[in-house]
Design a protein that fits this description.
The protein is an alpha+beta fold. Helices cover 37% and strands 15% of the residues. It has two domains: 73 residues, no CATH class; 298 residues, 3-Layer(aba) Sandwich (Beta-lactamase).
Amino acid sequence: MSLRRFSVGLLVFAGLLVAGWLTYRPDRALRAATTAVAEMICAKTFVSGLDPQTTFAETMERPGLRRLRAVMRYRVETDMRMVEASLLGLHGSRALFHDGLGCVSLQGQKAPYVPHSDVSTLRATETPPALPDFAETNPVEPTDPALQAALDHAFEEPAGPPLRRTKAVVIVKDGRLIAERYASPIGIDTPLIGFSMTKTVTNALLGILTRQGRLSLSMPAPVAEWRDPTDGRHEITIEQLMRMTSGLALDETNSGFDPTSQMEIHRDMAAFAVHAPLIAPPGQRWAYSSASTQILARIIRDAAGGPEQTIELAWRELFNPLGMRHVTLQFDGTGTMQGHANMLASARDWARLGQLYLGDGVVGNRRILPEGWVAMSATATLDTDYGAGLWTNRSQHVHAQGRARQGIPADAFFAFGLLGQRLVIMPSQRMVVVRLGDAIDPDGDIKGVARLVREVIAATESPATAAK
């Protein structure tokens, strides 16, 4: 081979490498990984009060992060209440804790906007919750042997990986807390991260704004970047964003290269998401997309009047009426709540959220969500088992049918989150079941959750338990 041909080949190869780098941007995928680690350690350390070393070890067992474990490093600055993560000093990310507002990722040179809200004052309202209060100061350990066995099975670990790592289970029947259990050092007031269960909180806030007449499901999404009537995105409705049928190129794979992963490294997450192009007509194609829900979070912020008003709305209209006292909403660098993921709440508080949906959006004598909102949210989208901010068994989809065969009632619907966060709402049983943990199997311990539900139903239907 001549030197000239070799040089041309080398240039072509180099050009392909550069093109591949510019197309896939592995540096962004690596930054997404360090961002996820920094945010998780920050939230679990400073909000949940858990051990950062344990959190790091469990976080690095996740698919996608596991291969980086040997080179991932983290540092906790306790005085600054900050966590930094990097890959041997490269692609570093930092997350900073703020009282009542959780952790915000520090992206770029510009300081993040921190809402000027005194969450402790908002939380300390004298208005009594409309839901019955779970007043017990200690975990409610059932006396019924069948319920005890159900909890035992929920916390069992297999002989080898993947581990289930159940952290908390709460069971509410007919509005009464009948059983719960926690893995040490977690307690009844420990805020635990819900990951995508946060989408149901976004659903609730959209419902509240709809009840107030400030938004509607059928209206074109009020996104400034889509205001041009000739832009195909102009016709995307709020409901289509909720159902993840917007047609935008925002499919989620959690690979590090997908839009949701890339969104996490931006100071303004929604601004990144709204620039995605259309790849299908709105309403005709479904793809799971946290980025779509983050667009809704910005719509909530704008409809409420700003970041501070969003926090006030959440506490005044949702958390306080439900008695959810141990809640931390987290925000991006512009003061927009992370509506797609990462809210923290105690297991009891997650159960209280479930009670709102079990009660068709009414608590006590107060309607929180519009009439018909819950049914809409639990109605399957196209041919999937996803509704509008909730997953659902009210579907012919193979996953819905599989869950029903495993013993989860056909009318059930759910808030699901990464690593096996499960809020199961069962109207036919007048029951809510919460399971939180760090299960790293691909199904998020859905078989274990199904067994828990199946055994709890059997126990509560038994004459001995019913008599109590």
